[in-house]
Design a protein that fits this description.
heterodimer; A: mainly alpha; MetI-like fold; 2 domains; 0% strand; B: alpha+beta; 6-stranded mixed β-sheet; 5-stranded antiparallel β-sheet; 10 helices; 18 strands; 32% strand; elongated
Amino acid sequence: MHMNNKSHRVLPGFGLSLGYTLVYLSLLVLIPLSALLLKAGSLSFSEFWKIATAPQALSSYRVTFGSSFAAALINAFFGLIVAWVLVRYPFPGKRFVDALVDLPFALPTAVAGITLATIYAGNGWIGRHLEPFGIQIAYTPNGIVVALAFISLPFVVRTLQPVIEDIEAEVEEAAAMLGATRWQTFARVIFPAIFPALLTGFTLAFSRAIGEFGSVIFIAGNMPMVSEITPLLIISKLEQQDVVGATALAVVMLVISFIMLLTINMLQWWAANRHKGART
Amino acid sequence: MSIEIKNVVKRFGSFVALDDISLDIPTGELVALLGPSGCGKTTLLRIIAGMESADAGEVSFSGQEATHLHARDRNVGFVFQHYALFRHMTVFENVAFGLRVKAKKQRPAEAEIRKRVMDLLGLVQLDWLADRYPSQLSGGQRQRIALARALAVEPKVLLLDEPFGALDTKVRKELRRWLRRLHDEMHISSVFVTHDQEEALEVADRVVVMNHGRIEQIGSPDEVYSNPASPFVYQFLGNVNVFHNRLHGEWADVGSGAEADGKALSFVRPHDIDIEHAPVAGGLEAQVQDVHAIGPVVRVELLHGSELVEVELTRERADVLTLSNGQRVWLKPRQVKVFAAESPLEEAGSGI
């Protein structure tokens, strides 16, 4: 497409709005994060490496990223079903169920954590029925996954809903007319269409879960080396006045999160664009 | 494969979409379902395809009952108005879809699929677009791909739902002619839905005119145009002048079935009226209101009393007459069709 060097837009104010965007992002994101890096910079590299790779820290990374990944994966599957049902089928109380999905956004995460811990404890409503099978949820890493799945559910559902709404019924009918079974229609026509959105929802859920603190500490049991998440380790370092040590861990989290999000974003970009083909 | 539809009824809530429809479509025919929107034509097509189920009645293909057969087992090709191509697949994969989803035993080998798809793309003259995605094609190209995709599974029946509705006039005309040729080459039965009477008259072997869930008339394009069975068909197919029961002389005589007391409606096509300068026996006196030259024809609007009359003349005739606004002239009909005015006339779709 040919464009003049100076394009004329209907709405003016590109300079102003971009300036505002940069100031806003700087105040909220860039400056605090730079301060974090600066603070961590007061450590020598060997000191930093020692703190960052301490056994307790390493196991906390495993717990944090492992359970976040598991929670996001669970939500990708069940969130897809929830979104599908909410979009495709009319049923009584649909609005109510739709509103329920947003609840994890609004509920204080500590409340969620306490509630989940009570219900899934060995003597709780649900935990009681799982105990005989040897399944323990509360106060184990399983509990962390449950809490993270709870708080990250809306991200998958809300990302998928508009995309599922966007699939024309005609496309499914076309597949059926060509002889495709229901499963073939889903696997070959519908799933590829919603896959980029599913990946986006997964990413959002995953990153939300990595940063979660409030709900997890109530249900996790917080046993060092077993069910201690990195954010909690940071807090306990701060409580011991070890600000530099806390910063070091924070930087590690920052870097890992950034790399993971970048990777998933690129994957997502690839998934969304591979069908557009080369521009001609 | 022939299609037989027997006493099909379909309701949506209290709305009757199809009211006891019976229709036979012989093998090899290209049939147009024509009618205004909401007349049930698309519903009928979807019932034939198996995407909608009839509340009552039967659909059979070549005498075999198919009323409850699932859409995917009917071996019917379907083309949608808005193409319904698979956005995430290349043109090639779109066309190959119907072959790839076949059960393992019936699925052709990869090389065979490749050949079949390229043949079909050649047939629709778009083989050079095989690697593109639907978003990179124009509307006309997309619809041709949709057609190739529908033909890939070698259907015995091809159904098209307003196939050219979303395209511009020039592409539409081209595709019409092309569909006609394709239909003749493939030896299949085709049914297409349209609200465009020009399209139906130009392409189809037979036209089924529908209104309010009922069939008004079935006939060849010439039959439905020249010999409409009802006032609705008359008004829906082309422009027409309607005269309300004050006709006499030649105007009333020409028609058949006119009632003596004049309680009748007379229909005359604009091109079936001639204009004379001098009074003629039985002619209607009228005053010229406006003269437009539209391409090869000249359209004249006249006032007869308080009624507007439209007349279409050839250019030659208009040149001879040299009409001017306000001039008094006499109208002479060549052909009048009279219907008893039992029911009030309904608003029909616009003419050409």
